[in-house]
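Quick question: what would this complex look like in 3D?
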Amino acid sequence: MDYEEIKLFRERYIHKQKDYQSLNTFHDRLTWQTINTAIQKVEEEQGKSPAPFAFFVMGSAGRCEQSVWTDQDHGIVYRGGSDEKDYFLELGEEIAAGLEVIGYPRCEGKVMASEPMWTHSTDNWINQVEKWLEEATWQSLRHFSTFFDSRVVIGESSLLDEIKRSTFNFLDNNPEVYRRLIDNVSFLRKGIGIFGQLLPEQSGPMTGSIHLKTTTFFPYVNSLRLLALMDHHLRASTVDRFIYLKENYPFLIEYEDQFKRLLEFRYEHTRLARNYEEVHYVSLAKLSKSDKQELKQFMKSGAELFEKTKSLIEKECLSW
Amino acid sequence: METVLMDNLWVIIGTFLVLLMIGGFILLEAGSTRMKNAGHIAGKTIFTIGIGSLVFWAVGYGFIYGEGNWFIGLSNFFYGDTTFAEEGLSPAVDFMFQMMFALIALTIAFGGFAERAKLSAYVVFAVLFSALVYPVVAHWIWGGGWLADHGKQDFAGSTVVHLTGAMAALAATIILKPRIGKYNKDGSSNDIAGHNQVYTALAVLLLWVGWFGFNGASTFGVSDAFFGYVILNTQLAAAAGAIAAMFIVWAFTGKADVPTTLNGALAGLVAITASCGFVEPWAAVLIGAIGGLMVYGSMRLFDRARIDDPIFALSVHGTVGVWGTISTGFFATHELSVGMEWGLPGLFYGGGFEQLGVQILGVAASGVYAFVVSFIILKVMDKVMGGIRVSEEEEIIGLDLSEHGSYGYPENIPHPSEQQAAK
């Protein structure tokens, strides 16, 4: 299939997915198909891949939480040295261009395999991630969090797992970095006011709408990432993290269904969004009274979950 | 004799303080709007102050305080009284102090012109407002006109200065229509943020201090040091206004919005302007706090009504000006009204509804007059001058360049000809 065919396929079926799981499976299928087409193109021009590699997606794609409209966040890891880098950067560029044609805008923050920062050999990835954690600045930890929510779409998963394992090792030896990781995600945009009312946007085209990602999703996603780090867990999907981590952290049980319901809620209310901007918002005018109650509950539970996670990490990692 | 001289000195100090409020308005308007218009705002404010001063000297003062009828004064034009009686204020001192109020009202009115009116519109309206709008309302309340006969209380000008200026601003805002990019097709409103919140905050501080002259010197003397009491009430109301505004905007939006907080302080000052010499300090706190709450609601309402008010003049000076005037109808004490031979006590001090009724009548009549006459003047100007709004291109390029030929921040905004050359 060429890119145009994949694009038509996307346009025809994207709004026909029955729930958020099938939507994410659909996104994966499109991505997989695009990468294969890109690999073929690059192989025709540059020859076969000079080293084993893995192409991985990050952020919401990594966490299997994509909406109908979503941008690109991806990277490449390969086993080899710096000589092979140009080949994989070219492959990354071909994939980014292909995904753009299909309907995934390029990432504004340039988190893409076409960028030197997001395509490395295993060793260089390990060095870069370690450097991010050593620096522990606001920006470097944002890069780290984006990276850690990653999963392989094509290629050898073990390459990515190797980098993640090195991360666990670093954090075990430097537990104080958890403090910075917590601080990095502690700012939460307020979604509920003192009168218990929802706090929508006050101006601009999205006036009267709630930004779901920043007010509601973030505390769940960030909590589960922090717990996955502490538990040395490799999976990136937040739902999978709930499933596998609740054994060691039973307090997660009461939030697991809530989070799954939140994914459904978002899918129901944003599946008809017309663009990437709109897909992050839910209009309060279109919500019923019970929808609003449910949304407030998502926000309250998320904030509660984050507080519990924070206390737990402070107790277990920062008291050493 | 020493007391008389001290009275004169105090009022002229008050005059200086009020004139410095113009500096506050320059910073307020420039800080609350975009940098491409900053030089224009600073320049046109000083320029129109010049026009306002000459018009006030020529006819304004005469229309307010000259011998005339219930509607308008008709003597003392081209003022130049050098006499000095051994009692009361020197006529020139009194004249200068009164002139400052006219200039402040004019500057408030121009808030409604911000970021889109032609410079020529400022020139013509400065003349007509200073001659035909402000003096009439001032005559009615302060110059022995029909509202003064009813005992209308307005200690330092909530109605005369603030409401009159705001009503002219409302007329201008309606005729000029919203700025480009303010409203979307679906009716939603965009926040066109001001370019410098620090300017805006310093403006509020400058205005706050100036207000001590505005209200404090409106005692017209130093006997009993009553000005201290007036300034105390002024301070309390401004403080309560700032706190109340920050609280309400935080409660409703989750954000402690800085511009709203600053408008709250100004709202407290506007609200207490009418009542600062009539009420007790606890009432000043309440009056200021209610002003602070109202300003937030008013800003929201004007925005929803698609009335683009770039520097919130309509809410701060109009809506709160109304509240400030009516507040004496509730809170004026017996001692500070009847005792001072100025109107009656308010509803909460046994005065019944009479003073409240007078205050409401005064607000309604003054507001309607200022709005209708300003609207007619501006409509006629719009027809005669081929529009009072700059073209779309001029508005986009900024009034600094379109009306004056140079930017207020030349280093930060490349001149369009340089931009062209660079391509």
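Answer marked as accepted. The radius of gyration of chain A is 20 Å.
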